[in-house]
Design goal:
single chain, alpha+beta, elongated
């Protein structure tokens, strides 16, 4: 089966099918434009995205008819979880991780990084509150996108980090 575009996401898509099959992906596979994978039911899926910058998200729908829907599931992986104690610490951690050019994910008020033992030891030695956990890496922080609020009237969490880091 050849997939060239994302149909939608189960969070917002209301159409249903008789069967749902899952395409399990590692977090780093979500940005690949061309790849061949197998669903949990053994169906071969060839992904060939022609648009630049397309990234698969959790529960994206890749195929759907009345009988079948194929949905993305991003697998949990070993991750470093940092829970900064305040905004200044959040800004420092983001700066340090950014200097290492590592992918950084945000879940609530926690930062997640794919497991890296030397980095974990460094963060721990620097006094940051870190633990190792199996987590899904879903919300990558992208620095090339301007942060914005979503109608709550105040600055977003990311805007607060940027403001503190610029002082």
């Amino acid at each position: 089966m050849l997939v060239r575009e994302i149909i939608g996401n189960t969070a917002t898509h209301t159409r249903s099918s008789e069967e749902t099959d899952v395409l399990p992906l590692e977090w780093f596979e979500t940005t690949r434009r061309i790849q061949r994978k197998h669903t949990t039911a053994g169906r071969e899926v060839a992904l060939k995205f022609t648009k630049e910058g397309q990234q698969l998200q959790q529960h994206d729908i890749l195929y759907q008819d009345d009988a079948l829907m194929i949905v993305v599931d991003i697998l949990p992986c070993d991750a470093i979880v940092i829970t900064p104690r305040n905004m200044a610490e959040m800004a420092k951690v983001c700066y340090e991780i950014g200097n290492k050019h590592l992918p950084l994910f945000l879940e609530g008020e926690q930062l997640l990084i794919p497991a890296d033992e030397p980095l974990f030891r460094w963060l721990h030695a620097a006094g940051y509150p870190v633990v190792k956990e199996k987590r899904q890496l879903l919300h990558i922080l992208r620095t090339n996108v301007q942060p914005h609020a979503h109608g709550n009237g105040g600055p977003s969490f990311f805007e607060k980090i940027l403001e503190l880091a610029s002082k």
